[in-house]
Design a protein that fits this description.
mainly alpha
Length: about 80
């Protein structure tokens, strides 16, 4: 197996693992969690890509990102030269 194929397989494994971790930590319900898990296990790249495209972002996560950006902006305004 060439180095390129090894890296592609490693990338696929990483994507699948992170997808499954996200599926299980989002508490989607038993049916949805089982369906996404089966889809990702049976069709690893297509299932993971579909999950990340369809995955809804909860409002709390959007608000948390907005607050983090505004805090970063305030820090950079307070220290303009690093």
């Amino acid at each position: 197996m060439s180095l390129l194929w090894l890296l592609l397989v490693l990338l696929e494994v990483i994507v699948v693992v992170f997808t499954l971790i996200d599926v299980f930590t989002r508490h989607l319900g038993a049916g949805k969690t089982a369906a996404w898990t089966l889809l990702v296990v049976i069709l690893p790249l297509a299932g993971a890509a579909l999950y990340w495209i369809v995955r809804p972002t909860p409002p709390a996560e959007v608000e948390q990102a907005r607050l983090a950006r505004s805090e970063l902006r305030r820090e950079t305004e307070r220290r303009p030269f690093g």
